[in-house]
């Protein structure tokens, strides 16, 4: 593979893994397994039937979990500890033929990119879940699935075009992430105020307080 192709595949896998790890692995394995592309030696394991079966099954589970408000946030929370390290490992595996120093660089950059895409997805979903209708959630989830498949495919087929698109996406993410974070903080503050708010006193409570006050005054 040419250097541009290697870089595109490495960063494409890292970005896609932060959104939907299982779809990224399945698409990678499928493209490598059907002979369309020759994967780097370190990533050829992704085309093994057992790996593809596991990735396909977990994608099937995530496909439905990711479209249920509340469940998707719980799923994203758990996968904070899965997507980011896996994205870093896949990014490093893509550049294995370039040497150990390239693997370390890809591991660091890939982990950072996976973390950024995961944070954008998870934070955006928290805000989307405030909408009472399910259409927005389903639309976002399907758009994410399409983006993951398209990114892995384009990184392998059109690496130069993918790298240009990735730079644009990174600029958009850099603009979005602070605003998503502010929205999540605002939502958390409102929820904390809602649950910590002192409930109104009932009629019986007011009556008991009044009687106690009268007894104290009479004494």
Distance between the termini: 93 Å
Oligomer kind: single chain
Give the count of helical stretches: 7
Q: What is the beta-strand fraction?
A: under 5%
Helix content: over 70%
Derived structural class: mainly alpha
Count structural domains: 1
Low-confidence stretches: none
Order of helices and strands: HHHHHHH
Q: C-alpha Rg, in Å?
A: 24 Å
**Biggest beta-sheet profile:** none
Integer average pLDDT: 88
How many beta-strand segments? 0
Shape descriptor reads elongated
Set down the secondary structure blueprint.
Layout: H1 3-33, H2 49-65, H3 71-94, H4 100-128, H5 135-157, H6 159-196, H7 203-218
Question: What does this protein structure show overall?
Answer:
By secondary structure, the protein is an all-alpha fold. It has one domain (3-196). The protein has helices spanning 3-33, 49-65, 71-94, 100-128, 135-157, 159-196, 203-218. Helix 1 packs across helix 4 (100-128).
Brief synopsis:
This is Transmembrane protein. The chain crosses the membrane at residues 12-31, 156-177. By secondary structure, this protein is mainly alpha-helical.
């Amino acid at each position: 593979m040419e250097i541009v192709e290697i870089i595109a595949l490495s960063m494409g896998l890292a970005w896609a893994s932060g959104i939907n790890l299982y779809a990224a692995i399945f698409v990678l394995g499928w493209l490598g397994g059907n002979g369309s592309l020759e994967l780097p030696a370190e990533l050829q394991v992704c085309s093994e039937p057992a790996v593809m079966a596991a990735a396909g099954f977990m994608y099937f589970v995530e496909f439905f979990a990711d479209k249920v408000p509340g469940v998707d946030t719980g799923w994203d929370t758990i996968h904070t500890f899965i997507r980011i390290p896996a994205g870093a490992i896949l990014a490093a595996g893509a550049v294995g033929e370039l040497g150990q120093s390239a693997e370390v660089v890809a591991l660091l950059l890939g982990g950072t990119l996976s973390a950024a895409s995961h944070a954008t997805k998870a934070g955006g979903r928290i805000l989307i879940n405030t909408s009472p209708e399910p259409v927005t959630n389903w639309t976002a989830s399907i758009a994410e699935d399409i983006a993951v498949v398209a990114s892995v495919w384009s990184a392998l087929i059109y690496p130069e075009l993918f790298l240009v698109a990735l730079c644009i996406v990174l600029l958009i993410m850099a603009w979005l992430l602070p605003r998503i974070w502010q929205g999540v903080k605002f939502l958390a503050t409102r929820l904390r105020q809602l649950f910590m708010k002192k409930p109104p006193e009932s009629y019986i409570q007011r009556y008991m307080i009044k009687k106690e006050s009268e007894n104290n005054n009479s004494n």
